[in-house]
Task: structure prediction
Amino acid sequence: MKTKISILAVIILAFGTMAASPAPANNSFSINQASGSGSFGFIRSHKQAKGIEVSWSFVGNATGFTLMRTYEDPTDPYAFWETVDGTASNFTASNGTASNGNGSYKAHDSDVSAGFLSYKVVASMQDGSTVVSDVSIVRISK
Result:
């Protein structure tokens, strides 16, 4: 009888400890990037007015950027990513000039629906390669 109670107590303690463990605070993840050609410093997204404001920084010889979004699980390799605004000329650099590949940029996505939206930026490099940013996730409730 004591053995059964001891085993039950160990099982309850084990599950209690697992249930009390906090989830990791970091809800973002990285996507592999090409090495040596350029890098993203950050990507952020937040609700602004009736849309989403996405900002990012990049250092490297980028010829343009493509902002992409999905309502699906961004970790799913079969998730459908759609283009928001196609080229660097659609984005505003922090100094108000057109993109030259270095600096901070922002774009506004006004065509959004309720749900979790995930954004990523793809930088097109001078050598024809691409560099993909981390993913930024924002929740829209309407």
